[in-house]
Amino acid sequence: MQDGTDASEPSIPFYAYKPSLMGRPWEFRLTRDALEWQIGRYQGRTPYAGISRIRLSFRPVTMQTRRFVAEIWPIDGPRLVIASSSWKSIIEQEGQDRAYGAFIRELHRRIAASGARVAFEAGSSAIRYWLGLAVFVIVSLGLAVLTARALQSAAWPAAAIIGGMLCLFLWQSGNYFRRNRPGRYRPDALPEHVLPDG
After folding, report:
1. Whole-angstrom distance, CA of residue 106 vs CA of residue 112
2. pLDDT digits (tens, 9 = 90+) for 121-138
3. Dihedral angle computed from the Cα positions of residues 161, 165, 167 and 168, in that order, rounded to the nearest 10 degrees
4. Same domain, 65 and 85
């Protein structure tokens, strides 16, 4: 699903993406005083002053290793999820970094202008982050020990395979934890580590 400006109302910022291949696109619009959304048959309107919390995070998936997500909790209504990638085919997700980043920045600008009291959070929840980091450290140490033992035994192919797995694991998971450290931010100073460039 392509993103851009709503053809019917060019002045209203518009963003759309498909969270699943078979599902309908999720569409979002920023009107003068509210975030409007449509998900299949369902639609709604959340005034900027009616938003209680926003979380920005980095959420890579198998076919899109560079994926960002904004979660929005209205005071009344369902949690809304906006992602920077959209399903394009059974084997491909299309990145929409530029349009996603522009939409999320404009959403924050409008929330700030409304004077709404919103909790702005970055990264993962604290419990999820620290538990995940503990598992990351344990698995990394385990792979490092296995690599060292394979080298001591002169099992070069095994050492190369395990060492390669360790490097890949450190790169991917390390990037995830680096970007998703829990924190708070102001709507006029968005954290760049949980947003696409630009």
Report:
1. 10
2. 999 999 999 999 999 999
3. 130
4. yes
Confirm if 52 and 111 have CB atoms less than 8 A apart: no
Q: Are 120 and 184 in contact (CB under 8 A)?
A: yes
The C-alpha atoms of residue 6 and residue 1 are separated, in whole angstroms, by 13
Q: Which residues in 130-158 are b (16+ Cβ under 10 Å) and which e?
A: eeebeebeeeeeebeebbeebeeeeeeee
CATH number at residue 112: 2.30.29.30
* Domain match, 110 and 46 both: yes
3 state DSSP class of 88: strand
pTM for this predicted structure: 0.84
Task: Provide the domain limits for residue 152.
Answer: 126-177
How, if at all, do strands 51-58 and 42-47 pair?
A: unpaired
Q: For residue 40, what is the DSSP state? A: T
pLDDT, position 63: 66
CA 103 centroid distance within chain: 14
